[in-house]
Amino acid sequence: MNQQTLAIHAGYDKDSMATMAVPIYQTTAYEFRDTKHAGDLFALKELGNIYTRLMNPTTDVFEKRFASMEGGASAIGTASGMSAIFYAIANVAEAGDNIIVAKQVYGGTTTLTGHTIKRFGIETRYFDVSNPSQIEDLVDEKTKIILFESITNPSIDVADFDAIVAIADAHNILTCVDNTVGTPILCRPFDYGVDLSVHSTSKYTIGQGTALGGIVVERENLVDKIKGNPRYAHFNEPDESYHGLVYSDLPLPLFSLRIRLSLMRDLGATPAPFNSWLNIQGLETLPLRMAQHSSSALAIAEFLENHPKVSKVNYPGLKSNANYELGQKYFKGGHSGLLSFEVADKQTAQAIADSTDIFSLVVNIGDSKSIITHPASTTHQQLSAQELIDAGVPAGLVRLSIGLEYTQDLIDDLAKALG
Ligand code: PLP
Question: 16, 127, 275, 369: least buried by Cβ within 10 Å?
Answer without folding.
Answer: 16
